[in-house]
Amino acid sequence: MHLIIQWNRIAIILVAGFLSACDSPSSDREAPQVYHLRVPAGFPEMVIPEDNPMTVEAVELGKLLFYDPILSEDYTVSCASCHIQEYAFADTVAVSAGVHDDRPGRRNSPSLANVGYQKALFMEGGVPNLELQVLAPLGEKSEMDLQIRDAVKRMKENRAYVDLARKAYQREIDPWVITNALAAFERTLISADSPFDRYYYQGDKDALSQSAKNGWKRFQALNCNMCHSGPLLTNEGYYNIGLEKEYSDPGRARLTDDPRDHGKFKVPSLRNVSITAPYMHDGSLKTLDEVLDHFAEGGEGHPNKSILITGFELGDTARAELIAFLESLTDKTFVSNTEYQQ
Known about the structure:
The chain contains 14 helices and 2 strands.
C-alpha cells in the first residue's frame, strides 16, 4: 500500500506541473522535429504516449539528462552511473551505490535494452510507464536523493537546458519536461541486432554457431521459453524461482500486499544476458554457470516457488551449448551505438 500511495503523490506532482505550464503564454517557436523510431524485424510497433511524442529535441534533452549528475543530491550520480552502455545499460555490481557512496540500493540494476516496450516497470511491476518511473530513482534516498522540484531549480539555472526544453516541449522546465525527456531518450534504447536476431528474425542461417543452435534447441526443450519468450525474451510475468527459502525482499508482494506474491519478481529479458552479470533481483548469482546450476538444481523450497522450476540434468555438453546460445543474444551494435553516447 505504501508504494501505491507514493505513486499517487507523484502523479499529483506531475499533474500540478502540467496545469501550471498550461497557464504559460503560447509562443511561435518552431515545432520540434519528429524522431523516427526504427522497428526491428520481429518487433511490434512501440506504444508512444500521445502527450509525449518522439522528437529529436526531446531525445537530445533526455540524453543530456541521462548522463548529467545534476539530478543527484551531491552531483555525483547520474542515470548512466548505474546503467552503463558497455554492459547493455546495466551495472556490473550486485547492488549499485547511490549518493555519498554509502547508501547501497536494494536491487540489481536491470538492463534498459528495449525498456520502451515494457508494460510495467520495476521488479514488482508497480509503475505503468517510463515517465513515472523516472521519478523513483531521483527521490530514492539510496539512489539519487533529489526532489524533482530541486532538479527543476537546478536546470533553470542552466541556459542550455532552458533553451532545449523550450525547443523540445515549447514550455519552461518543470517536472513534466524532465520526466518526459528522459522517457523519450530511454525509448530509443532498442537492442535487436544480436547473432540470434540475425538468425531467427532476419533469416541468416549462418549467424549462429552450431553450438548456439543446439543451445537454442535445448533452451526450448527445457521450457525456458515459457517465461523467456517473444522478441523481448520475457513474458513479463512474475514468478518465485526458489532463489531463497526466506526472501528479505518481498518482491511483487511489496505492491500487492498478497502473501502469495512474496518472492515473485518480474521475468527479466535475456537480451545481452552474457554481459549483464551479476544476476537475479539481488545480484547474488555472479555467472551464467551459477544461474544454470540454480535452475538445474530446482531452486530452494519456498512455498510460492513456481511449478515450472523442477530441476533438470545438466551435462558438460548441454551447459556449453546453453551458454553459447545465451552469448548469441549479445548485441554488439547496441553497446557501441554512438547515438546513445554522451
